[in-house]
Amino acid sequence: MDFIKMHGLGNDFVCLDRFLDPAENNPAETDYSELAQRLCHRQLGIGGDGLLLILPSEKADARMRIFNADGSEPEMCGNGIRCFARYIYEQGYVQKDQLTVETLAGIKPIRLQMKDGRVYGVTVDMGKPRLSAKEIPVNDHSDRVVNKRLEVLGKEIGITAVSVGNPHCVLFLDDFAETDVLAVGAALEKHPFFPAKTNVEFVRVDSGEEITVKVWERGVGPTLACGTGACASVVAAVLNGRTGRRLTVHLPGGDLQIEYAEEGRILMTGPAQYVFRGQLID
Ligand SMILES: N[C@@H](CCC[C@H](N)C(=O)O)C(=O)O
């Protein structure tokens, strides 16, 4: 089995190209959940935060499926979709710098930044966030923005819930030293307030144009970056009056540019890198 390893700011993916292989396009034929757990294993597999499937689409230029390292299938992946877009362009599957990708969170329009026929940056229109409790998978009955106090590890913590296709729980803090990000992240991921579990972002506001974010990803754990998490953090920062709408988001793996535009759409810009190609031996 051939694979490609890619990453977006250190958020790394094992990518399987099934674009031209109709037999493999039938999801029933392969247990991708089991395969993701096996291939993403850091010691026994290739190693990765997730498994990306590159598929043809009847509704868009291509279709992306993503599986977390624990085998669960999320709706969307921000860093993954930039890798996906770069790959399908450079592979010649699409021959234009504006394309669309079908995901479980809808069809995402994408613009490629090109130099000498290669992609050096990718902007994804992530769509509008879902902000009220009625639209986010949370145990709440209000229809307002979900700012909530939750009990976590014996302490009350203020959070903002934001869905950008997948669920996010955003916490603001003044100093990362004040919170055990790993313990609180793990506890919030499975907090009963989030029936579908959640990704968790710890956000320090550095200025009106910059934030620093650490991430605990649903189905993975701590990662070097999370594209959807960066988008959710910016939305939460804007809604809580902490920043402007166009931000540089500093993540452990590098920076993303995120704009929460006036009309409510989120635009994410960042890099996508190849690591290596390989062949799995059974
Ligand atoms: N790393 C991703 C998000 C991947 C999915 C997430 N773990 C979930 O379960 O929702 C990103 O860059 O957005």
Automatic annotation (TrEMBL):
One of its GO terms (molecular function) is diaminopimelate epimerase activity. One of its GO terms (biological process) is lysine biosynthetic process via diaminopimelate. SUPFAM superfamilies: Diaminopimelate epimerase-like. Its EC number is 5.1.1.7. The record marks H168, E217 as: Could be important to modulate the pK values of the two catalytic cysteine residues. It is found in: Cytoplasm. Substrate binds at N11, N68, G78, N79, N166, N199, E217, R218, G227, T228. Homodimer. HAMAP family: DAP_epimerase (MF_00197). This is Diaminopimelate epimerase. It comes from Syntrophobotulus glycolicus (strain DSM 8271 / FlGlyR).
